[in-house]
Amino acid sequence: MENHGQNPIRGLSPAVRDTVEQMLLGGESYFEIAAYLAGHGLQTGVESISEYAATLNANVATLRKAQNDLRKMLAEVERCPALETSDAVLRLAMGHVLRALTESDGADAASIERAIHAAVGLINAAAYKKRADFTAQLSVERGLDSVGGMLFTALARERPALYNEVYAFLKEKKAALRRERGESACPRSLKTSGG
């Protein structure tokens, strides 16, 4: 396996390297990129650029695949709220492992290991998203509770009839929301046995 760490493009400043990557992704020729690099003090051949492009393309493909997997997993969790995020990730990981086993001639340990690492990455990304969503929702709820508390205190004191009407309306909406959350669009086979 080649050592891509020795590629001179990796040693460039982030701004120049980002420009080179954008040129590669934009379809510029290796000769145009070599001329650009020469203008920034790096004399390099198209072989180095080609090697860097291959690594970049592999990284972009891996990133796109991971984003696609995350979208699939989040869509499954959204479609089926009773499904735990970790269950969705495990299903996706099993799909990757099974695909790696069936697509290779024998058990290719490297592709299975990549699939498992991808699953761990998905679990981490899903946990981060869930935590960020929870934190954002908690902040919104705290803000609404604070404003609502002030509003209800003022309404109860100054306009009791309106307070009673608004209180009854909100109580009805909360009950409807709880009923909606209690119903699941998931088939029973997707629900976990523990829940």
From TrEMBL:
It holds the Pfam family Phage_Mu_Gp27. InterPro entries: Phage_Mu_Gp27. It comes from the Bacteria. This is DUF3486 domain-containing protein.
